[in-house]
Specification:
By secondary structure, the protein is of the alpha/beta class. Strand 14 and strand 15 form a beta hairpin.
């Protein structure tokens, strides 16, 4: 009996040590007291991504999402407002963690930045008055540009003075600035934007960023432009690209030929629940909220203002060798046959 008690305490001590290493909540992993509510509901050995709602000693429900021994509370997630997306992410984006927003091509830089600013607008609802630090290298700002100050307030409700920009000469400097800023509670969020797949941004560097975000309980958004989907410590990776805009809605119905709200195509590349999915989200600049595009919505392409509608697709195209036109010295020379091609009966041979 004594040996079993010692073994139990040893197991719980190991779990607490692993929880400290992984940055989880050790008090949620301790064995509940006998007779306490929910004593028989906390158990180990879950497969990754399985969640349950036990009851703590106070009688309130808590959510435990297990990936190994990771635990999280319901208010630890940033809800996007899209139920299907939040459910696929296991509750939403983690607030105290590193989240990766990935753009596969350079032309997706605007969509990735716009989606990050949309999430920033949701974050500032819960932490009004705090600034947001946007960090990037000179290369990425030269390629993708800076956020437009007047558009911040018009589209996202972010005051221009709330967004602080830090341009670093090298990626090593940008990573150092991000680590130092991520441990501060004076920022509502920290955004790091990089380009490509640099070797400095490896698994160790992202683990440091994730640990800083967890210790400060602040989100860190990693924007990756035109890079490969390499392993990182971010528990969530969203692949974002621009989606065709639908027509603008009016009282009389959709306005033909118009361009509606900005839209994003969001793919779940990695999540705590290991669930994949693709979503088309529209950002409402008036309400500062996401809306999922329904299946009945049809994306439109503006019709040319002048001329007829585009012709239907042609049939099979055959390739012919290119024939160079004959040399011409006068406007009418092309209409005249050459001397070698002139019929013999029209040019009689000179006699004598």
């Amino acid at each position: 009996m004594a040996m079993s008690a010692v073994a139990r305490e040893t197991v719980f001590a190991l779990r607490r040590q692993i929880a400290k290493i992984e940055g989880t909540l050790p008090e949620r992993l301790e064995a509940p007291a006998r007779g306490a509510p929910g004593a028989g509901k906390v158990r180990s050995g879950f497969p990754s991504g399985i969640a349950e709602k036990p009851v703590d000693a106070a009688g309130s429900e808590i959510t435990i999402v297990r990936r190994g021994l990771a635990a999280a509370l319901p208010d630890a997630f940033l809800h996007t407002g899209i139920e299907r997306l939040d459910a696929a992410l296991g509750g939403g984006l983690p607030k105290a963690a590193l989240s990766e927003i990935h753009g596969l091509e350079t032309r997706d830089a605007g969509a990735v930045a716009g989606f990050a600013l949309s999430l920033t607008s949701l974050i500032l609802r819960e932490k009004p008055g705090l600034p947001v630090l946007w960090i990037g290298t000179a290369e990425i700002f030269r390629e993708a540009g800076f956020p437009y100050a007047r558009g911040l307030h018009a589209l996202f409700g972010i005051a221009p003075e709330q967004l602080l920009l830090s341009e670093a000469p090298k990626l090593l400097d940008a990573l150092w600035i991000t680590e130092e800023a991520a441990r501060m509670t004076a920022f509502a969020a920290v955004i790091l934007e990089i380009r490509g797949s640099p070797r400095l941004l490896d698994l160790t560097a992202t683990r440091r960023l994730h640990a800083r975000a967890h210790s400060a309980s602040r989100p860190v958004l990693l924007l990756r432009q035109a890079g490969e989907a390499e392993p990182t410590a971010a528990p969530v990776r969203l692949i974002v690209s621009a989606a065709p805009a639908a027509s603008r809605e009016t009282v009389a119905g959709p306005l033909a030929g118009s361009i509606g709200r900005p839209a994003f195509t969001v793919d779940i590349g990695k999540s705590r629940t290991a669930l994949s999915g693709q979503f088309t989200l529209e950002w409402n600049p008036d309400e500062h909220a996401f809306a999922e595009r329904t299946e009945n919505s049809v994306a439109v392409v503006p019709v040319p203002l002048r001329g007829a509608d585009p012709a239907p697709a042609s049939g099979a195209v055959l390739a012919f060798p290119a024939v160079a036109p004959p040399a011409a010295t006068s406007p009418t020379a092309c209409d005249q046959p050459s001397r070698q091609q002139r019929p013999a009966h029209r040019s009689p041979r000179r006699a004598g």
